[in-house]
Amino acid sequence: MLVTGLEILKKAREEGYGVGAFNVNNMEFLQAVLEAAEEQRSPVILALSEGAMKYGGRALTLMAVELAKEARVPVAVHLDHGSSYESVLRALRAGFTSVMIDKSHEDFETNVRETRRVVEAAHAVGVTVEAELGRLAGIEEHVAVDEKDALLTNPEEARIFMERTGADYLAVAIGTSHGAYKGKGRPFIDHARLERIARLVPAPLVLHGASAVPPELVERFRASGGEIGEAAGIHPEDIKKAISLGIAKINTDTDLRLAFTALIREALNKNPKEFDPRKYLGPAREAVKEVVKSRMELFGSVGRA
Ligand code: G3H
Ligand code: 13P
Ligand code: NA
Ligand code: ZN
Question: Exposed site from 20, 86, 94, 207, fewest CB < 10 Å?
């Protein structure tokens, strides 16, 4: 069933588990995520970025919203990293039930003002809002506190930001970053900072850039001819710890892309004569589904729907 983001996330924060927001760009990803959610009896968030909406167009938003309605588990259709008021309005019109306005690269007052404006529009039509405060960046454990403060989310600012904007959930910067290169070895996650934020902000918290970039997947990608450098993701124990401290929404894109592409590479390499797309997209879709299912186990959302 199609529900708001807050309906899913409020329960998650209260009960201490996480819900995955999985990025989708095409039919195969949509099917993979929804099938995984139903098999795991897990709530789920379908995340469509502006790039996804441009690539998939009306076909993608129609499929996402209609399939969410028919799903046997709670599903929110979410705009990921909305960059403008106009972009949010397009998502609202398409029937999304959750929107993110990301003005984290602006100064604090601009972020407050622009977020507030989106909250008013979205709430008027019953849609809930994610905002972001701080810069997503990999940092070293021993970086000085004031340097960390310049980049990462400041707990007291977060409290004021949420009060002034009326946003429903907040994306925080605690050391994660987007993509396959999140740092060296095991990237440092500032759990102490998260703990302080969570004490001041009762709303569900959101972790972007949370992919694990699993070494097995990286290896499969490489073995099938893919080129990838010193990839590193977020350790599963750091995800679990973050959930125990108040993270309720965990964004995952990179792991799904890696799985999908590795399986396509393998299938095409194995049979150069094949040109039926179903023969290589099918196994790739299955691999995405397996990654989503295992993420749901890690997040603790299995059986919560
Ligand atoms: O954080 C961004 C997501 O991974 C979506 O990426 O803008 O390339 O669709 P995208
Ligand atoms: P990853 O690149 O770690 O998958 O993060 C995705 C994300 O935060 C989408 O908003
Ligand atoms: Na998002
Ligand atoms: Zn993100």
Answer: 86
